[in-house]
Amino acid sequence: MSVLVLGGTGFVGKNVCECLSEHQIAYNTLSRSTGVDLRCMDDFIYFLQQNPPAVIVNCAAHVGSLNYVTAQAADVILDNSKMILSIYEAIAKICPQTLMINPIANCAYPANADLFIEDHWLDGHLHPSVLSYGATRRFLWNISKCFAMQYGIRSISLMVPNMYGPYDSTDPNKAHALNALISKFVKAEKTGQTSIEIWGTGAAIREWLYAKDFGRVIVTILNNPKMIGLSEPVNIAQNFGLSVGELVDIIQEHFNYNGKIVFDETRPDGAPKKVMDDQRFKKVFRDFEFTPFSAGIHKTIAYYQQIWSDLLNT
Predict the structure, then answer these.
(1) What is the pLDDT of residue 32?
(2) How far apart are CA 249 and CA 117, in angstroms?
(3) Which of 211, 217, 235 is nearest to 296 (CA)?
(4) What distance in Å separates the CA atoms of residue 296 and residue 212, rounded to the nearest whole number?
């Protein structure tokens, strides 16, 4: 089986590729950093002609923090929409038998939902703070359905919560929220900062997925691509959330930081709660075990400690 990871040099893509390597699954990666701009269909067509894959794991996206996807809203929606159209049109022309696996961020769920349930993920408006990116996740779903109707392209939609883990950015404007928090604590401890600024009130509740667990879900599917239950969206879910304030307390326990924690309430919280129902997941992935949160936090801290040591010593 030939596997292509789009966005394989990014945060989620690197974690997927690491899991594929560990399970001895051969793969190619493709991203702008490897010389292919997925917004340009001709570039992607040329690549597919040389390397037609059996499976594509689509981790390519233009995304960032709540602040970023608001400030750069037009660029975010344009770039992601162009990529989605280019990817599916190229596949239709060259290799319509390819299986597409699309992670769909839970910002695509309705803003007013208290629990994110797959059958109701389109039943309401998006939260304004994630409109630019969330709209393209719904667009991705609709495009996949239309290309299935006309070209028979099979797509698997995996609804994912906020992710954390190694390989993310140190820029809080680009990093995922939990990674940004950990990076701030590591930097503050290493540089002797007297305070750490936390964006928002700390009240927003989020569910968290260790990014390598997503890679393990991908491996599970690759080992059994016809497994029952993947013809409809599936939450990669544990049905458990923590507030940002609680996360700060948990992270702080791993540091000897005595500075001041300042919540910048001028920054947006986003939707008040994002927790995903796990009933369908437990039926489809019966034996899957998630990485314990404490272990994931420990590994993420270790990653950022190494990254900041390298940055500060250069």
Answers:
(1) 87
(2) 29
(3) 211
(4) 9
Residue holding tokens 């007297």? 194
- Domain 165-205+241-272+293-312 fold is UDP-galactose 4-epimerase; domain 1 (3.90.25)
Residue 292 confidence (pLDDT): 96
Cα dihedral 95, 98, 103, 109 sign: positive
Q: Where are the domains of the chain?
A: 3-163+209-235, 165-205+241-272+293-312
4 φ/ψ sector (left φ>0, alpha ψ -120 to 50, else beta) = beta
Distance CA 282, CA 207 (A): 16
Quote the tokens at residue 48. 């597919």
Judged against a pLDDT cut of 90, whether residue 174 lies above it is answered with: no
CA angle at 124 for the pair 209 and 136, rounded to the nearest 5°: 60
**Domain 3-163+209-235 grouped into CATH 3.40.50.700:** no
Q: What is the pLDDT of residues 94-135, one digit of tens each?
A: 999 999 999 999 999 999 998 999 999 999 999 999 999 999
pLDDT of residue 1 exceeding 80: no
